[in-house]
Amino acid sequence: MRNDDGQVIRLEDYRPTDFAVHHVDLVFRLGSETTEIEARLTLERRAGTDPAAPLVLDGDDLTLTGVWLGDEALAPPRFDATPDRLTLRELPAAGRFQVTIATRLDPAGNTQLMGLYRSGGVWCTQCEAEGFRRITYFLDRPDVLATYRVRVEADRAAAPVLLSNGNPQDAGDLGGGRHFAVWDDPHPKPSYLFALVAGDLDVLTDRFVTASGRDVALAIYTETGLSARAAYAMDALKRSMRWDEARFGREYDLDIFNIVAISDFNMGAMENKGLNVFNHKYVLLDPDTATDGDYAGVETVIAHEYFHNWTGNRITCRDWFQLCLKEGLTVYRDQEFSADERSAAVKRIASVHGLKAQQFPEDQGPLQHPVRPTRYREINNFYTATVYEKGAELVRMIATILGAERFRAGMDLYFARHDGDAATMEDFLACFEEAGGIDLSQFALWYHQAGTPTLTVRERFEDGRLTLGLEQDLQRGAAGTGTQPMHIPVRFGLVSEGGADLVAEPAAGGAEIDGDVIHLTTPSAEIVFEGLAERPLVSVLRGFSAPVTLRFEQRQEDRLRLARLDPDAFSRWRALTDLVGEHLRNASIARAAGESAAFDARIVDAIIASAEDERLEPALRAQMIAMPGEAEIARLVGQNVDPEAVHEAREAALTTLARRGEATFARVHEAPAATGPFSPDAAAVGRRALRNALLLPLSIASGSPDLAHAAFAASDNMTDRLAALTLLAHRFATEARTRSALDAFFERYERDALVIDKWFTLQATAPVPEAVEAAERLIGHPLFQLANPNRARAVIGGLATGNQRAFNRADGAGYRWVADQLVALDRLNPQTAARLATAFRSWRSFEPRRQSLAMEALRSLAARPDLSRDLADIVERTLA
Ligand code: 0A1
Ligand code: ZN
């Protein structure tokens, strides 16, 4: 294991390598115990570099068994090897030459799940970001691009399927039960996109003919017996391929595209060239075992990895500081895909919800960093919501600023100019500057300055003149990365009393306006609209056109009206959730001071009205009646948070809503549900979401679990079943009938890992203080496996990130329990331990007693001498 050497990698130190790697020939001899690897690299010194410079290759925990220059076996001092580095001296000053390196690995002992490891019986690899160096010594960095040819040898019985990147070239028998396959990838790629999979797998196949007529063989490999569950993933893949052609003119570029579903995986999935490897959670689905949320997740992740083929693979990153170049852009692309495939407003609400729940707390706490960071200790810790989700928002803002046509022209230029390159964020922006005829140097600050800007809006209406005052501020905690005014695109509308968008001409001289977008580029600006017959309702930041905290002291009546009649569906949702959020924030603060705050009946009525508003699609109605979660309310409170007060305030609001809305909710709930077989289409998903959202207030109003039990018993799909069971486990935990329902669920799905993850999660997330003890019991369950990331996340992550009340328990037991689990997990899988440790990131926002308990837990972690670099980096930055 790599312990921390304290080294910080800096963007300003970037320098190209002295050597180019033109081609890589790999041979893998997979054995039941160890794997032997031979890597033959075709190298060349780059022109203009020191002809005597040694070749220094990266390694991580490697065992070297031989080195050759051409056919000559080398011995020290011609080379020096440690587990982490191989240095070769006296290499040719010019021309191509070959170095062959032999290493021996123990894939079964690799619990980090980086490099070559075994999951179940399957051999598989994960190389992003720096896993290839755990297979062989290499210039393991994204700007070293080579073609690869891979030969895999294995026992046919253990591994009838042998896969790598690119096209299959050869295969055959070796005698003695052994066989081989050879794969050839003609597209030069960085080592992080290398992949190999070997095992006994089932396959689902299909075909796709690209716009220009290339016939592509598609295959999704799964554990034996599960390939039927890959049907929806296959459908999503074909839709993604078609969409990328239509929307961005991007076609697939090999004759074969393989996906493999793996049960032990650190992240969601990986875009290896022609051989995507997935956490099986994002491939395997059927109505009986997966929820509608799971279906949406599969669609998104399948699309995301496929879209990487152009944004990430054909055009890759020069260095890891440029991670947003591929990730922010690819998230933007997958969000646009989902918006086109489903309801755009529903998708946008879900994305903004995710951004606020994940990225805002990160950007407002100790793990804050710019979208394009300039230094890191451990790159694995920068696969963050800031790089991914905020990175996507920055691309969306570019699209808003340029408009659809010029944005597409900028993307076309990017693909044309940088195909085959390892590019930078500056390269990307330059394409939009050129294609859009615009200077984006101020906009670029979004990539460099950390923190969530505050946008303050004021309005004044007099004599038919509306004055909007806008002000931006990045003062609050922006980690020394600058606080210069940024270019904030503010989409807006002026809405009439009757609910129509008014067309009003701005008077000259204020901030620049382009159609329905105000371009705020100065610290503050005013815009005046003249000749208005009536005072309009001001609808700002439509579609969440910039990732900012909006402060707009708008009259309550105006906001209530906008919640009812803003022609922009997203803005209606925002108007209502902002009102609810504000109440919950104030009520939480009041409770903490021993007072109470009444839930304004007009807000309550607005929520109730939205539940039966036939003009809104059901999915949107479900989103409007859902209360913000406890963590979101805590974020709104911001400081001195008392999680018990937050919990009580939310409960009180739910009770008020449930009592007042009972009749309406019951009416909507009783309306006939859709008939016919299960369908994952958007309309059916929306209807289920609405019915399930109503279960909570209806159960609270009746004070009885009967409705949830009836729903559980009647459910014919996992969405309804899990919604009912979660409600029972979270609100009626002590009832014997709840236990029976949990047991019945367990028995039914005992052999289904993905469903059993849900069973673990729903218990770890029960919003009761005793969930800490429950989680302790869960990790003693025979089916709990710390080494399986999905299972570890289900229980430890369930408690740490999905259970604000128990994690932040007043006696500190939640913090201590999580810290203990992190220590144990860190020994097996540092990357997953570090990711879970980010749960502590908001510790300073709690009241002083909890702060000191959290600090104690963090300090005791930091004091451990054997912490991995991954976990040490998170813990130390969180404490700093
Ligand atoms: N590039 C992948 C994310 C990813 C990153 C690191 C990994 O290592 C375990 C795995 C996957 C994506 O954006 O989907
Ligand atoms: Zn990605």
Notable traits:
five-stranded mixed sheet; eight-stranded mixed sheet; 5 domains; Aminopeptidase N; EC 3.4.11.2; Neutral Protease, domain 2; Peptidase_M1_pepN_Ig-like; Immunoglobulin-like; zinc; 880 residues; binds O-methyl-L-tyrosine; 26 helices; binds zinc ion; hydrolase
What is this entry, summarized?
Belongs to the peptidase M1 family. One of its GO terms (biological process) is proteolysis. By secondary structure, the protein is of the alpha+beta class.
Share of β-strand residues: 15-25%
Major beta sheet, strand line-up: 6-5-9-3-2-12-15-14
* CATH class term of the largest domain: Mainly Alpha
At the fold tier of CATH, the topology name of the largest domain is Zincin-like fold
What is the rounded Rg? 28 Å
DSSP E strands, number: 32
Low-confidence runs of at least 5 consecutive residues? none
CA(first)-CA(last) distance:
25 Å
The name of the CATH architecture of the largest domain is Alpha Horseshoe
Please give the oligomerization state of what you see: single chain
When the domains are counted, the total is: 5
**What bound compounds does this protein have?**
O-methyl-L-tyrosine, zinc ion
